[in-house]
């Protein structure tokens, strides 16, 4: 096959976009010299793509409606049976709908991506199926995963399974809702600003954001490579640890992975917390919108950990607030460059690219007004930083991120874990349809004060339910050293077995 060659006039237009001026004669001369390069493009075009083989049979499935989808938490239902045996044999799993499942549509919460069908399975999908899981579908997620609320998904908001009309949290809204509603055993979520932990806190599930790079992101639509995380959402600590055992580890295809250290996480669950040092993060309780009921429940939960034998005291990490502030230039400029201008894939990394996703997502430009306000505001901030300041604040923020990581590291040299509320509020009512842009955006980001920092520092963090306020769950978050997921599971398991969180 042959790619389309530009004309001399088209080459002049391209040159102007690169701030170059070419005469017609120069354009023709350049065009002649470019032909061998275009021949190389022809060679690439004529070869089959080098993507993984799809090893488990499946059908496209269907999009459930009405009584079959009362929470709007399902995007697609299907039935992909894994191996006959393995750690997850007999377990049902739903994937966040930014995870590639070959042959099954993927919309990532946005109408602009509707109709896209991945050609290969994400690495974590292969690992889940090899471990015997049955993947039963795709869970609704928020519009390109840019919301901590659950009102930004196309075509409809996701409801909290404990209270209809209230937020399920985002952006892994459907994943947490389906686990909490007992419609699936386990779910995969994604986390760039809290999107595993926020819906877990709102819905009463266990959500682990692992250390950055512990779980391969290959085959999952990125937002920004330095903050992209994926991990498990489950109904028990054991299931969470078991699922992480299956999906963790290098795959040789993800540039986010730096020789990740894996462990047998389930072996940490019965060790208790006797003598474990836990620091109550002062700054985590200073969020301006921290609800008094949430504050009280988390402090009661910390007191329970102390009764179980943990050594508990206050600790200040001023860099916690810095990390939260760094999310704006890193997240906004990074997503504008990679997810939008870079058509979802970006450049300058080796690994597995999804060419079909790149082609489909590039069409967002034809219908940009359909993008959610929560994405638009991030794009506007990001574009301003890139265009007006040449990306210098993204670069400086990445430099300062090392300082934020060091602040956490200093505290975690004296403590095994840090603890704070996952989110400052319980699940609020969903915004009314047709609400103002201000309400729409405010409700998308009002809860990320404690969760965004660990996406910048890369520390593992887990939300676990620790009580109820007015019939809605409260989440407590445990943060550990890099690759110390076992320590987090150890404490989470001790707390879980100490009593029913619904009665706390």
Automatic annotation (TrEMBL):
Gene Ontology molecular function: catalytic activity
Amidase domain: residues covered: 76-488
Chain residue ranges for the region called Disordered: 150-169
Pfam short name (any one): Amidase
NCBIfam families per the UniProt record, alphabetical: PRK07235.1 (NF005565)
Protein name: Amidase
